[in-house]
Amino acid sequence: MTKHEVKEYLTKIYDLPVVEVRTQNYLGKRMRILGKRQIVYAKRPDYKKAFVTFDNTLADTGLGSIVPGMNTQEGKE
């Protein structure tokens, strides 16, 4: 996913106020698997991380963020 796709996804589906999206591409780890007769080379898949900065309208509770308007366990005792 690109930066624009991540921002659009979070704003349209979850209605979150996204300010900035930064991405980093990581290469998968390369490995050597030693067998009895031969050495097999393998590689884990590459992956991408997205770091999202939200607007100050989200309240930080220390355990996560509370999104205004979302129902969070109301009525449970």
Can I get a quick summary?
This protein has 77 residues and is mostly beta strands. It is 14% helix and 40% strand.
Tell me what the structure shows:
The protein is mainly β and 77 residues long. It has one helix and six strands. The protein has one helix at residues 3-13; strands spanning 18-26, 30-34, 39-43, 47-54, 59-60, 65-66. The chain has a two-stranded antiparallel sheet. A two-stranded antiparallel ribbon has the order 2-3. The longest helix has 11 residues, at 3-13. The mean pLDDT is 85.
In terms of topology, how is this protein built?
Blueprint: H1 3-13, E1 18-26, E2 30-34, E3 39-43, E4 47-54, E5 59-60, E6 65-66
Antiparallel strand pairs: 1-4, 2-3, 5-6
Helices, by number, come to: 1
The helix/strand series, from N terminus to C terminus, equals: HEEEEEE
Quaternary state reads single chain
Query: In angstroms, what separates the terminal alpha carbons?
Result: 40 Å
The number of strands is 6
User: Beta-strand level of the residues, as a percent range?
Assistant: 35-45%
For the structure shown, list the relevant keywords.
two-stranded antiparallel ribbon; mainly beta; 77 residues; 14% helix; 1 helix; 6 strands
